[in-house]
Fold each of these.
Amino acid sequence: SSRLGDTYDRMEFAAMVSGTAWKPFAYRVLIPRTTLLIADVTPKPWQKSIGNNFKGWLESSKFTKRALPWLAPLYEQDTYLRLVASLLVYGCLWGYIVAMYWLAKHLFPAEQAIHYFAPIFGMFAVTSFSWKWIYLYDIPVLCLSAACYWCIATKRFLPYIALFTLACLNKESCIFILFFFALWLFGRMDMKLFLALVILQCVIYLAVRSLLYNAFLANPGWLLEVNIHKVLGRDIFGKSRYFQLVAISVIFFMLTFRWNEKPAFLKYGLWLLIPFYYIYVKHGFPGEYRVFHDIMPLMVLLLTHTLISGTGISQSPVFLPGKNGKDAP
């Protein structure tokens, strides 16, 4: 657990909610502002009652004391606000699971096993690629990006614009969803509508960024942190060359095995690895692979296809149409 961001003093929970966090973290307002909005419409006596009851349950629960000893101290201060924020984040986690299922179902309509395993592997990616850094905006990034990709794949533009707007309020890296939108849909839809949607997204993104920039102008910090010397020293050149070679080889294999069978939609997503790798090296932190969360849904689906279809699991009778696969072609 990252203790709702409390492991990093520049963006601890209280600072994020109050709007006093350092830039660029202060710009990521979706969960903090939604938390405050819910608190504003909740009567104070209700907040106090809910907070006290929740704290009482944590303190009396034998399970949390033994298995999750860190949980009760997490909610000692601002109990109601922290509880609301936690529920919002885990609501996004369920949204991510559902979005991954529907995206897999659309891209692999004939391979039922991938529909079910994609959300499972997506859940593993949350912990594997985040390590100890899970902040208020991380899981919403996964949820909103997966949902946006589903809207792009199915050409549901009205919900896409709404989701993209939420993504802009959550984290500035959503600009790459717009890049993927343009990359994939160019030549695949009416050009006038395509240009109108691209321009609309640019306007939304710039408007949101401008408003947030002005709102937090006095906050300490900068637009983006620069940690290139740390990433190069501790990660790129600091690890064993053999480890890097094996890691790159495994990742390449998992993303490209049976290349001709993988949907073109997912293949296009690999282009985004280039700018995201640059962002990781320049603005990330050693081992902070959650930088790739915006494209993680696409990478997870490529990996799922390799593991499930490539190994033959998708042809198991359990996942074929009809009883025991008898009606399958």
Note: The first helix runs from residue 13 to 18.
Amino acid sequence: AVGFAQIDSLFNKFTFLQTEYDTNYVKKGLSDWAVHFYLQNRNNSFSSQDQTRHQSVYFDPLTNMTLGAGGSYKNFSLDFGFPIQNNKGDTAHATGLDFSTSLFVGQHVSDMGFRRFRGYYVSGYDSVQNELRSVFRSDIATANLYLNYLYNFNYRRFSFNASFIGREMQIKSAGAPLAGFFFSYMDLHANEPVVPPEFDIYYGSSIRISEANLWTLGLMGGYAYTFVLPARFYLTLSLVPGIAFTTGEVKSDVYYEIGEPVEVSFKLISKNAFGYSGKRFYGYLSSTTDRYWLRLSKEDQFKNNLSRWRFLVGYLINKADKR
């Protein structure tokens, strides 16, 4: 049988993980085992804007607030949660699947996941009623597969693990340049144009989209910094812009391709946390935003937003070293 220790050793070799930390800045190996409880909210929204009239239509899925618990052993963590609140109550046909995982070890910082939602709230200006309205569309569905990878150039003195996992501790304030790549695939489809007819009179025909298949690959670079505060508190801020290259096709009245051969656009990732690193207890409130902007036509700009906030409280079962 293969034990946890053997798996962890193979994992370090496979990822070329460096373990030579500057112990004046980062303390690692605080505990092999930990348990935690969390409250979390995720969202996979998007919007479409008519660049000529400067008006937008917003699409928000059924979002769940999740309460859960989990445990971790070294670099491995497992969570289980269940929804406790929906953003609306009249969504019998709405469904959602959200799987994501993160890796914050040494110089490696990565996120990957798959999200699938059916049923969106469409919000915009109703020119007939002359008011802002929100209608539910059970036929709008999206599927999104994504991978973000960043290399931490100052991993010896700066730890993402300390801010977002809790198995390490940032002793002194420090920052790190970050650089990496990203990939995503998004599928959008509906039985009819995603903009409802009552909004279409005002927004025109430029965003009469009913299907889209978009492949995106790009590069990004930025900076992250952790402020070590008194009484074991800390604040981590990061900003990582990127340039995206997208290809694919969109269906309006007919199918048409995006870009010639690709469309160049902008991407932005931000990971932030405010937390506490105690001798036994630790916790944090974190937010993650992942957005990119894409021009689907001369008049229409598309913005995709993956976001999450999380409140977590954890307990170190056995300490490998004094904090």
Note: Residues 1-8 have pLDDT under 50 and may be disordered.
Amino acid sequence: ALGILINTSIKIGQIRLLCDYLEQFAKRFPKDSNSSDFLLQAAQIREGLGKYAKANHNYQRYIARGDLSIAQLDKAVFSMADNMVQMNNSAAAIRVLKTYQKRLSASGQVRAHALMAVLNQKLNRRSQARSSSALAKKSYQPGMGKKDPVLRDLMAQISYEAVYGSSGRYFKLKLNKKIDNKIAAQKAKLLQSLEAEYQKVMAYKSPAWALKSCFRANEIYREFAQFLLDSPLPGDLAEGQKQQYRSLIRQKAQAYTDKADQYLKTCIELARKWEICDPQLTGYFNPAENPQGKENAFGSLSKERASAEVARQSLRDTNLTRLYQK
């Protein structure tokens, strides 16, 4: 009877009813070979409909069956964590990751550390974020990122957030009423260090974070140019020498502005290369819209999760419908 109901719900496109029947089937026939597939499909459809708590309940039942491959376990665990984030419960997402972390694949464990670093940072748990970030960086191999773009993006994100979070001291270094060579040297050293760290983020080749890092590199060079332009004149210069000194400073500052412009040009080239159209990122390659490159300055173009459409399309998948009809 359940098989007929499942088949009928597919034909008439009633995906909510389909979820109910799939869940009932798995509960009534836990030893049936199709129960795992039914629970997974129910979880994915609930997820696509935005019913994240119900989706996670199905994922938990799916994992508890104990017949999953490591790859299947990875997908289920990260889906559960992502759903917790969708419910604005980052702490619960971290608990999920900690619960299953040791059972994940090698790259899955690195991804779990990286995601926990991001989530802990979001919760302002800086010590835990640093610890998770260090563990992720220690075990990460470039090959992992090539196979798992999500992991690559997370690694780029934690690296970006670390360098961006440390840049405050650089911007605060200013000359007051007289030239201080010590401050100038500190500023120049910090510029080199920040640029090197942003370049490391770019090396991950994560489109969003490479774009942001290019913009920030432009920003730090522009800041140094302004630092030079705002520097006071030496007090012992004659009037004619002052004009010559200002001209030399402008030339030196222009070299830093030119470098900033190169980074900004790279932002635009990367955006075109990767065909970036995310409204949250456009300010990084179109500064006229977002002069300071502020985070979250733009809203999303779509209010619906992409997985909702995936869930709907799954009802049209002939392989899946055959599975329901078994």
Note: The chain has a mean pLDDT of 83.
Amino acid sequence: SGSGSMVSDVIINPEKYLFISSFLLALLAAYVIYRISKLEYKRSGSLTGALIIPFSLLLYMVIIDLPSRYIPDQLLMIILLFYAELIIRYLYDGYKASKFAIYSGVLMAAGVMTKINFAPFFILPLFLLPGWKLKRTYGIAFGSLVMVLFLLIHHKFNEFVNFALKVSTHDGLYGGGQDQFLNPEAFWNNLIQIMKDNPALMVILVVTVISLFLLWTRKDLRKAHRGELSFLSGFVLVAVISIFIVAKHYKNYYIIPALSISGLAWYMIWMISRRSRMRKLVPLLFLVVMIASLVRSGQILVPGYTTKANQKIQELATGSFIQMSMSPK
């Protein structure tokens, strides 16, 4: 602002710094998406494979709308996009398992310490790491970073515990509502709303469950796709747990971690289908599903933005009227 300290300027003009921070996070997310697409195109030469994960993010209005907000969930999405790249390198490029275990621990710890709704993702690497030695390495890396990050916020720990207890023992948002763990009627309504707000996630979950059934019932496929089987099993479990947790206290952006990693599930289903008898039809089928999902997301997103625009116009008109009324004649 030209004078004063940075702290005072942030206090005086918070919107400017929130916008800058959100913009930088959006750039970081774009960079990670570019890395994933470049990695896959360089590895397989397939444009379809390179675009699956980037396009999957466009299937959810809450992710499209994310850069306009400044919330921790932006960072959670970036963490999981980094993890998606790490998984691809591990399963398809021969990335060293011990390094994968360590970096998995670092990323999962960063996510869990950022926001509690990331907690279910702690179990995802356990599906991908064979043997107790690698799982122990992951646990040590996870626990070490959690301890380091905890030191930064230890003075706020009691407040967090009180907040967590209220959230877990009350049926309203942020620990409000009635003194009960769950409101069955609200929980069921929230589940339905999650499905309505994120139809693409429901499609991916259904297709993933069908793929898992085929992998488990066919020994040849199970042997050829052990990595995909492990990830898809973990993804379904983590996504279902996340959905049920969010349904207790529903805000659509709480489900962003599950949405962020769903593109990787879509990618692995595509990898499996490339070796099937229908491999020539796979790109067309994926294109049809993507277009249908994008159209559905647009049907949800456009009315919301139209409403926001109308509200903004009304606010500006009201502000101008008040200013004119109060100005001296």
Note: The CA atoms of residues 43 and 92 lie 9 Å apart.
